[in-house]
Design a protein that fits this description.
With about 180 residues, the protein is an alpha+beta fold. It has three helices and ten strands. β9 and β10 form a beta hairpin. The longest helix is centred in the N-terminal third of the chain and has 32 residues. The protein is globular. InterPro entries: GDYXXLXY (IPR025833).
């Protein structure tokens, strides 16, 4: 014999469902704040961006100096595969960070002047490795949109916070002269 749901049971399930959704939203927000609070901040230089893109979309598409890397930085014997996760070791060079090595597995130990940024292989050729980091879209605040439009196409210096558990997030972007 089937048990019919009562209005009280429905209310309990509804409260549990709404509570689970609120908990999920809070966890996503907390992860973003934790990345900023506990992460190590690095600066990445972009290729020149076209601020007119902001007239057509609500974000800029960014191509970093670490998007296209020489295949000689690849530290593994087997060829990189498309969509394969990789770990890029970055080191400060001037006012921005540059890639020094690319690994298939996250390295256990690194020199203190290096940091790991997780990425994915988009493609490779005989000499070049193209990577994606999940940081390729920048939603500029409205005040910055006006400044970008006045300056025209310029490179950006993007501040990225990289948490110890691998999550990365853009915290700021500044227009380079």
């Amino acid at each position: 014999m089937a048990v019919l749901p009562t209005p009280a049971n429905r209310r309990v399930w509804l409260v549990l469902l709404v509570g689970a959704q609120l908990l999920f939203i809070a966890a996503v927000a907390a992860a973003g704040y934790a990345t900023t609070a506990y992460g190590r901040t690095v600066q990445l230089r972009t290729a020149p961006v076209n601020p007119r893109d902001l007239l057509e979309r609500d974000h800029l598409r960014l191509t970093y100096g670490i998007t296209y890397l020489p295949l000689s930085l690849w530290q593994e014997a087997k060829e990189p595969r498309r969509r394969q996760p990789v770990y890029v070791a970055l080191r400060a060079q001037g006012n921005a960070y540059a890639a020094v090595r690319v690994y298939e597995q996250e390295p256990r130990a690194l020199p203190s002047d290096q940091v790991i940024l997780r990425g994915w292989v988009v493609g490779s050729s005989r000499r070049t490795l193209r990577l994606r980091y999940g940081l390729e879209r920048y939603y500029a605040p409205e005040s910055q949109v006006k400044a970008l439009n006045k300056k025209g196409p310029h490179a950006l210096l993007v501040h990225v916070s990289i948490a110890p558990w691998g999550q990365a997030r853009i915290t700021e972007a500044e227009v380079l002269p």
